[in-house]
Amino acid sequence: MRRFAVLGNPIAHSKSPEIHHAFAASCGHDIDYERVLVETGDFVAVVRQFFAAGGIGLNVTAPFKGEAFEIATVRSDAATDAKAVNTLWCDAQGQICAHTTDGSGLLQDLEQNLGWTVEAKNILLLGAGGAMRGIMGPLCERSPSVIHIANRTEARASELAALFSDRVCVGASGLHDIPDRPWDLIINGLSSGWDGSFPDLPLSVLSPSAAAYDLIYSDSETPFMAWARAKGLTRISDGLGMLVEQAADSYAIWQGIRPETARVFDLLRPDH
């Protein structure tokens, strides 16, 4: 039986074992996939022990994505862009390899599942943390008209924008200095989305068909989704589809086949 795991702290909330076991069942694979709670300072040792014991692949969630990037010897271009990864495995030479599937999972959900378009659109990103850095590269590849990054600390938004300024028209500001533009797609990565509050952003100009996407997922409407609905938006989604799609991309790296995702999404959210 091939062994896999997801590492994080906290980790009890993770849906990854259910997702990957469902993928394995659909592909006819026999796997073991578990949640592993990792204490601060133990990440490197846990990873090395896992692979030394014959483990095949690891998913990594907060707060260890940066450490996962650092431990790897072989890094994909996407990993190098993000400086944080969610997928680890060993190659034939025993080297730890790293990739992030967050950006590809997001695009798969936006374009294929939701039918939303990124190309030639005005995109507003809320937040400038690791999640945003992980999706910037793939978003740039779709040639949007502009990407604007708004963050509580404007300096962090400017730093992130500078990293990708040679690939796309990109701007940066504080949350309350967002320029008036007909925003087509708003993607939320603000940490406040977890604690039940969301700032009332002074957005006066939105595209008539504007869409709102929350990177977090929840069994109920998130504060950002409620804010978007109050603004009159009707195309609104949380990040469950991204979670499933990025998991499928990880599974494909490890197993050589990308599983179908629709049934797994239905399993996790049967009433959608």
What does this structure look like?
By secondary structure, the chain is an alpha/beta fold. 37% of the residues lie in helices and 23% in strands. It has ten helices and twelve strands. The protein has a six-stranded mixed β-sheet with strand order 2-1-3-5-6-4, sandwiched between helices. Helix 1 packs across helix 9, helix 5 (102-113) crosses helix 6 and helix 5 crosses helix 9. The longest helix has 16 residues, at 240-255. The model has no long low-confidence stretch (mean pLDDT 94).
- CATH class term of the largest domain: Alpha Beta
Number of strands: 12
Rg calc: 19 Å
Q: Helix- and strand-based class?
A: alpha/beta
Stretches with pLDDT under 50, minimum 5 residues: none
Number of separate helices: 10
Please state the average pLDDT score.
94
- Determine the CATH superfamily of the largest domain: NAD(P)-binding Rossmann-like Domain
- Stated plainly, the CATH topology of the largest domain is called Rossmann fold
SSE string: EHEHEHEHEEHEHEHEEEHEHH
Oligomer: single chain
Shape: globular
**Percent of residues in helical segments?**
25-40%
Strand order of the largest sheet: 2-1-3-5-6-4
The CATH architecture of the largest domain can be named as 3-Layer(aba) Sandwich
Give the biggest beta sheet: 6 strands, mixed
Distance between the termini: 33 Å
List the helices and strands and how they pair.
Blueprint: E1 2-8, H1 16-27, E2 31-37, H2 43-52, E3 57-60, H3 65-71, E4 74-75, H4 77-82, E5 87-90, E6 96-99, H5 102-113, E7 122-126, H6 130-141, E8 146-151, H7 154-163, E9 170-174, E10 183-188, E11 206-214, H8 223-230, E12 235-237, H9 240-255, H10 262-268
Parallel strand pairs: 1-2, 1-3, 4-6, 7-8, 7-10, 8-9, 10-11, 11-12
Antiparallel strand pairs: 3-5, 5-6
